[in-house]
Structures are given as structure tokens and as C-alpha cells.
Design goal:
This protein is of the alpha+beta class. The chain has helices spanning 3-16, 45-49, 103-117, 142-154, 159-162, 168-171, 242-250, 271-281, 301-324, 333-351, 365-372, 377-381, 383-412, 430-440, 444-452, 460-487, 493-503, 505-508, and strands at 20-21, 60-68, 70-71, 74-75, 89-97, 125-130, 163-166, 172-174, 179-190, 209-222, 228-241, 427-428, 457-458. α9 (301-324) runs antiparallel to α10 (333-351). The chain binds adenosine-5'-triphosphate and magnesium ion (MG) (3 copies). One magnesium ion binds next to loops.
């Protein structure tokens, strides 16, 4: 199946189960406190809380939701490019019940789709159930355990082996600090060549056992004071990583050959972007991955190139879909998150031979639109502004990037490449990180990345201290403007600007340099 067929097969399945297929919500979150839409359930919060009635009969929906996890409670940015299955932007397939069906149907249908329809071998599946510690908000999920046990038994498999307990960290799902939440139960797939991990790799962040689908039993609302309020009704909220599903289905020869590790990047979700990048750069993508925690300073050129391909393709998706939803790169909050991600991508472009003379980022948009423009019409409709924005942002960062990189290299000046500079041991001075930020527009995480590649860590305490001093200066400047404006308050328009600044003080204080 192609990616598009897999998505449709998910929709068909839940249509048969009387779900209304709805469009993805915008990446601009509706809930306060979120940087970006980070899960399929975000758009349904009012239905869970009971403040609005779902317009579906029966009260069921399914969709593919555009998600970004690059900040806040769910942040996968650091893993991107290095592992096989985390992206900053991904599609989350989901099905929902709003006070309609509950655990039994959710669990049985997930099994029916994965095992019966898609043909994933049951012996490679592991289900997790919620097993709380003292003081956690809910009790052991016996109901979910019994339902899974029944299913595994039908295949002659031992439930005690195939059901794994998960604690509050992995099996109590929360969208953010507040909002609807509840215990959950997940399906994980054993990708070891012989399928003999016996559940030991579940929840261990191993790419040989991947979490594919999370079924959340929404029963509470996390309140601002840290308490959990029982909701008026019980709901189902599920999320399946679409790219992970594609990897599983496409990379295992119909689930017969697990000898090669399935990766999300070796699917037709990413391949068209890689082909375009290859065409533009003249370099070749190899689907190779470093061992977890490997020394980045010791990466081969081929490995560095592979990581760069993946990071760029991922970041292209995050940027393009955000801009298509009206979230622009900028100096504040979520806008600055986008600018940071873009600058990371541009810097990774150096690895592929791109530069100020040879920009690339905007040229990739066409490959993305070709692939996903039908599923997400907003991407197609706004492709020109997406492309223009990426081109402008790239050009603007290119003006300082090379000088900044030179400043970094001069600071590090290793005796021989790959070894940390002796002058400051393995700690990179926060003052230089601040200079890179302030003068050359290097977001802190970019400097941290450069440092990680040299075996260095940034002195973030010193960096934060300098940032705070800069904020103080901005605050002081802010006040004097206001005072002057107040002094001559009888005067007209120009001085009135002082008041406007004052009103936006909170925002202005967080402004980052261009
Ligand atoms: P993981 O433990 O792998 O980080 P998660 O538990 O954080 O995943 P959930 O919040 O349960 O993920 O989201 C539901 C599903 O979305 C997951 O089961 C997974 O298939 C998919 N998913 C989550 N994060 C990502 C990501 N960064 N990239 C791709 N798919 C993801
Ligand atoms: Mg996660
Ligand atoms: Mg997880
Ligand atoms: Mg999960």
C-alpha cells in the first residue's frame, strides 16, 4: 500500500464503524497553553469537557491530524534525524467517541484494523496498560487488561507476556499541563529480526520496538491547580502515528521480513523530498542511523549527510504546514520556534553544500505540495506564500550564518578535528553562545547542536544570565520611553506610541534579535 492508500484504508475502516471523517484542524492551537496542535484530540476539547455537543450521529469521528511536537510538554526536536521514528511534524490518525463507545470497542477495533485487516502478526504486538504508583490519579486498568488478554488468547498467545504495565509517564496521557486526560493503553510492535524481544523493549525508546497506536480513555480534566476533575462523560481518544504505520506496512514485505529495521524515512512519505534534495544537492541519501548516544564528533561524512537529509525534510514539513496555517517564523513564542527550526534546517543545508549563493529550502516546497497537496488543500492553496517565506527567511539567515560559523570555529579551534578545544575543556562559554545569538542570530539550540557535534556542552547558566541582563536593559529602555511619553502627555500622536509600547511590554520583553 502507498501512504495515501494506508490513510484511506484507516478512514474506510472507521467509516464502516459509523465514524464521521472530519478534516484536520489547523496547527494553530485552539487551547491556550499549547504552542502548536500536538494531538488529534485538541480540536475536540469542548466535546470532552461537555461545553459543546458534537455534531455527529452517532457521536464518533475519525481523521488525520497535523501535529507538531517541538516545544512544551511534547517536544521531539532533538530526536529528529537521529532516530527512525520521531518527527517534529507528523500526521496522527485518530478515532473518537464522545460519550459513545468506550474501552471495549476501542481496543477490539484497534486489533481488528492492525491484525485482521492490515495483517500485522499478533505475536509481534505488545499492549500496555496503566499501572499506577501510589498517589497517581487512577487505579490499575483491569478492564483494558482483560480485553487485551481475551484478544491475545484467540491467537494462542500468553497475555502475561504480551501485556506490559506502564506507569504514569507512559500510560497516563495529558495534552499539556491542563486539559482532558486519562489512562491509556498502547500497541507496540516488536521489530527485532526474530520478533523475540518478549516485551522487554516496550517503552524503552528503542527503534526495535515502536509504539504505533495510543488509545486514551478520557475521564478527567487536569485543572490549573494540579487536581484532576472527573468529567461528566467518558470518551475515547486514539492516536496512531501515520508515518510509523507506513513504515511498518511498507518496509517489512507484508510483515514477512523484519531483517532490515523499518524506518519512517524509507517510505513514500519522505522519499519524494529526498529525491528533490538529491537533485538540488547532487548528494545521495543513505538510510543509515547512528547508535543511540553515539559520539557525533565521530560521525562519518555519510552519516552526517544522512542526518542532514532527514532533518531538512522534517523541518520543511513543519515550516510549510505551519505557514500554510498562518503561523509565520518570527521573534516571539511559537513564531520564534519556527524561526529556530528554519535556521537549524539552513545550517544542516551546509552539510549538503548549500549556501547563500546556493539556497535550497524554498525549492523543496514543490515536492511536498505534489505529495500532500490533495490531502491538505491549504498547503496547495498557500504554496506561493510558503515558498516566498522560506526563501526570505533563508536569505536573511544566510547573511550572518557563515560569519557566525566562523566565529564558532575560531572559538573552538580544535588542535585536530573532532577533539574538544583545550582552552575551555568541554564547556562552551555562555558568553560566546550569547554573542552568536545576539550578533549572528544563532538560536541557543543551534549553538548547542554545533557544540554536541564537537563533544562540547554550552554553559547555559551563563547564557541565561546574559539573556536576563539583556531583558533588564530592554525593560529599562521600555520604562524611559513610557516616562517621557507621560511627561508630555498633552502632546499628540508620536508620543502616544510610548503608551502602546507599554501595553505590549510583556511581548516586547521576549523579542529576539532578527
Ligand atoms: P513516543 O513514546 O514514541 O514518543 P508518544 O507516547 O509520545 O510516542 P502519543 O502522545 O501517545 O505519543 O501520540 C500518539 C501516537 O502518535 C504515538 O503512538 C505515535 O505513533 C505517534 N507519534 C507520537 N510522537 C510522534 C513523533 N514525534 N513523530 C511521529 N509520530 C509520533
Ligand atoms: Mg513522545
Ligand atoms: Mg510513548
Ligand atoms: Mg503514547
Amino acid at each position: 500500500m502507498t501512504a495515501s492508500e494506508i490513510r484511506n484504508s484507516f478512514f474506510d475502516f472507521f467509516r464502516e464503524k459509523q465514524h464521521t471523517i472530519v478534516p484536520s484542524a489547523s496547527l494553530m492551537p485552539q487551547s491556550p497553553g499549547l504552542l502548536f496542535t500536538n494531538a488529534g484530540m485538541n480540536q475536540f476539547v469542548p466535546y470532552f469537557l461537555g461545553t459543546e455537543k458534537p455534531p455527529y450521529a452517532p457521536a464518533r469521528a475519525a481523521d488525520t491530524q497535523k501535529c507538531i511536537r517541538a516545544g512544551g510538554k511534547h517536544n521531539d526536536l532533538e530526536d529528529v534525524g537521529y532516530d527512525t521514528y520521531h518527527h517534529t511534524f507528523f500526521e496522527m490518525l485518530g478515532n473518537w467517541s464522545f460519550g459513545d463507545y468506550f474501552k471495549k470497542e476501542a481496543i477490539e477495533w484497534s486489533w481488528e484494523l492492525i491484525v485482521e485487516r492490515w495483517g500485522v502478526p499478533a505475536e509481534r504486538l505488545y499492549a500496555t496498560v496503566y499501572a499506577p504508583s501510589e498517589g497517581d490519579p487512577s487505579s490499575f486498568d483491569q478492564e483494558a487488561y482483560d480485553l487485551w488478554a481475551e484478544l491475545f488468547k484467540t491467537k494462542g498467545l500468553d497475555p502475561a507476556k504480551h501485556i506490559v504495565n506502564g506507569n504514569v509517564k507512559d500510560n497516563f496521557w495529558m495534552m499539556g499541563e491542563t486539559g482532558p486526560c486519562g489512562p491509556c493503553s498502547e500497541l507496540h510492535v516488536d521489530l527485532t529480526p526474530n520478533g523475540d524481544s518478549e516485551g522487554k523493549l516496550v517503552n524503552q525508546d528503542s527503534d526495535l520496538c515502536i509504539e504505533i497506536w495510543n488509545l486514551v480513555f478520557i475521564q478527567y480534566n487536569a485543572e490549573a491547580d494540579g487536581s484532576f476533575r472527573e468529567l461528566p462523560a467518558k470518551h475515547i481518544d486514539t492516536g496512531m502515528g501515520f508515518e510509523r504505520a507506513c513504515s511498518l506496512i511498507q518496509n517489512t514485505r507484508k510483515f514477512t521480513d523484519f531483517s532490515r529495521k523499518p524506518t519512517n524515512y524509507a517510505t513514500d512519505v519522505f522519499q519524494p523530498i529526498f529525491r528533490k534534495l538529491e537533485e538540488l544537492s547532487g548528494k545521495t541519501y543513505s538510510d543509515i542511523y547512528p547508535e543511540p548516544g553515539a559520539d557525533r564528533a565521530a560521525f562519518s561524512e555519510e552519516m552526517k549527510t544522512a542526518v542532514a537529509f532527514r532533518v531538512i525534510a522534517d523541518h520543511l514539513r513543519t515550516l510549510s504546514f505551519s505557514i500554510a496555517d498562518g503561523i509565520m517564523p518570527g521573534n516571539n513564542g511559537r513564531n520564534y520556534v519556527l524561526r529556530r527550526i528554519l535556521r537549524r534546517a539552513v545550517r544542516y543545508g551546509r552539510q549538503l553544500g548549500f549556501s547563500g549563493e546556493k539556497p535550497f529550502f524554498g525549492n523543496l516546497v514543490v515536492a511536498l505540495v505534489e505529495q500532500l497537496g490533495e490531502v491538505f488543500p491549504e498547503l496547495k492553496a498557500r504554496q506561493d506564500v510558503v515558498r516566498k517565506t522560506l526563501e526570505n527567511e533563508e536569505a536573511s539567515f544566510n547573511q550572518t550564518l557563515d560569519r557566525g560559523l566562523k566565529r564558532f570555529e575560531d572559538a573552538v579551534a580544535p588542535a585536530d578535528p573532532g577533539t574538544p578545544a583545550v582552552s575551555f575543556g568541554t564547556t562552551f562559554p555562555g558568553s560566546i553562545a550569547f554573542e552568536l545569538y545576539d550578533t549572528f542570530g544563532f538560536p541557543l539550540d543551534l549553538t548547542e547542536l554545533l557544540c554536541a557535534e564537537r563533544g562540547l556542552t554550552v554553559d547555559t547558566n551563563e547564557f541565561e544570565k546574559l539573556m536576563e541582563q539583556q531583558r533588564e536593559r530592554a525593560r529599562a529602555a521600555q520604562k524611559s520611553t513610557v516616562v517621557r511619553a507621560l511627561d508630555i502627555s498633552t502632546d499628540a500622536i508620536t508620543e502616544f506610541l510610548g503608551f502602546e509600547n507599554d501595553e505590549t511590554e510583556a511581548t516586547v520583553l521576549e523579542v529576539h534579535p532578527q
